[in-house]
Amino acid sequence: MTKPHSCPLCAEAYDDKTGLRVHLEVEHRKSEVVSYLVELDGASTDISSDYESTTANEERPAPSA
């Protein structure tokens, strides 16, 4: 089976997007390209905008109807 998720910065390849994402964040964490790719991947998931983190003193806004 081929590994469809290849690192754009080196020769590493992974079976899934999660493995590639971890590799990028660990091995290439200071690269602007990696920051862009991680943000781009986050925009393609549904959880990033629906579940924003809050601090202990911050209240979550009420959902609109």
Low-confidence stretches: 46-54
Overall number of strands: 2
Mean pLDDT: 74
**How many helix segments?**
3
User: Which class do the helix and strand fractions yield?
Assistant: mainly alpha
| Portion in helices | 40-55%
Strand percentage, roughly? 5-15%
Spatially, the strands of the biggest sheet line up as 1-2
Give the SSE order as H and E letters.
EEHHH
Distance between the termini: 47 Å
Cα shape? elongated
Largest sheet: 2 strands, antiparallel
Radius of gyration from the CA trace?
Answer: 16 Å
Keywords:
mainly alpha; 2 strands; 42% helix; two-stranded antiparallel sheet; elongated; 65 residues
Please render the helix and strand layout as text.
Elements: E1 5-6, E2 13-14, H1 17-27, H2 32-43, H3 47-50
Tell me about this structure:
With 65 residues, this protein is mainly α. It contains three helices and two strands, in the order ββααα. The protein has a two-stranded antiparallel sheet. The longest helix is centred in the middle third of the chain and has 12 residues, at 32-43. The model is unreliable at 46-54 (pLDDT under 50).
Question: Gist?
Answer:
This protein has 65 residues and is mostly helical.
